[in-house]
Amino acid sequence: MYTVKKTIEISASHSLKLSYPSKCCDLHGHNWIISVYCRSMNLNADGMVVDFTHIKTLVKEKLDHKNLNEILPFNSTAENLAKWICDQIPQCYKVEVQESEGNLAIYEKDQ
């Protein structure tokens, strides 16, 4: 089994829709640290699980310097964002989304 990990930093804003009062309901931004894990039993014709550049391009083009509420059809929590990213990338099985120091959400597909 081959595994690759790509870590990307993006800047993006969002506001959360919560069932309780919170300052996170106001528009604010983060420098998100996103780690994408992909694996495969076999390498592709180029000798890779997936090209690191393809992962970076997909995440940066869709999310970097954006208001996440304007482009994502769900409440833009770190947990929801981790699952969405995982669903976008072939061979991806796990994503970590750190929205600030000490706040990390992890999504991992069931095996």
String of helices and strands = EEHEHHEE
Largest sheet: 5 strands, mixed
Secondary structure tally, helices? 3
Spell out the CATH superfamily: 6-pyruvoyl tetrahydropterin synthase/QueD
Number of domains: 1
The CATH topology is what?
A: Tetrahydropterin Synthase, Chain A
- What's the β-strand tally? 5
Content of β-strand? 35-45%
Strand order of the largest sheet: 3-1-2-4-5
| Gross morphology | elongated
Low-confidence stretches are none
Mean pLDDT: 97
How far do the termini sit from each other? 14 Å
Proportion of residues in helical segments: 10-25%
Rg, Å, rounded: 15 Å
Examine the secondary-structure arrangement and name the CATH architecture: 2-Layer Sandwich
* The level-1 CATH class: Alpha Beta
Cofactor: Zn(2+)
Pathway: Purine metabolism; 7-cyano-7-deazaguanine biosynthesis
EC number: 4.-.-.-
Family: Belongs to the PTPS family. QueD subfamily.
Textual characterization of the structure:
It is an enzyme of class 4 (lyase). Keywords: Lyase, Metal-binding, Queuosine biosynthesis, Zinc. It catalyses: 7,8-dihydroneopterin 3'-triphosphate + H2O = 6-carboxy-5,6,7,8-tetrahydropterin + triphosphate + acetaldehyde + 2 H(+). InterPro entries: 6-PTP_synth/QueD, 6-PTP_synth/QueD_sf. By secondary structure, this protein is an alpha+beta fold. The protein has a single domain, classed as Tetrahydropterin Synthase, Chain A (2-Layer Sandwich). The chain is 24% helix and 39% strand. The chain has helices at 52-63, 68-71, 78-88, and strands at 2-14, 28-40, 66-67, 92-100, 103-108. The radius of gyration is 15 Å and the shape is elongated. The model has no long low-confidence stretch (mean pLDDT 97).
